[in-house]
Amino acid sequence: MLNAKLSLNIGAGNRTEGDINVDIRPLQNIDVVCDALHLPFRESVFDHVLLRDVIEHFRYDNIINLFREVKGVLVMDGKVEIWTPNFQSLGFLKAWLFGGIENRNSPMLYAPLTGLQDYEENVHLSQWSIKLLKKYVSSQGFKVVYAKGEGEYRGKLLPLKLFTKLFPSRGGVIHLIAIKEYSIP
Description:
seven-stranded mixed beta sheet; globular
């Protein structure tokens, strides 16, 4: 298996998009059940690590540890790809302006702000803007090569739809790609 490129999907849930899919819960298509802060893999194994809707489930003080784990399992010049709700999105603005109850039978606040709370770990403990996420990722020896707010506002308020077109960084999710560059002692 020389030069085989491997991908790791951390916090895969039901979206098993990696060669190896890990989650803290023992779900049907999960290959390894583990805590993302303690990955059970050798160093420099994966070419790509995916964190789709994962980092917001960690407190800020644990994010550095998470990125150190990711960096450890990535090969040099390997890529980490992160997707997370954009705290500066127009969806959040709408929730703040007009209320954020997802449905009338649930006391839950706007889901991108709090998580769906349908199982113990599905609670959002941190909120991210593009600038803040770039700062955290860069501080751990990654070179950010792509960072953008994606997804337009899907509500019924026409002014907010137009605003999204004018300010694409306010898209509903942040999509960031970074490359492992160097080691931090």
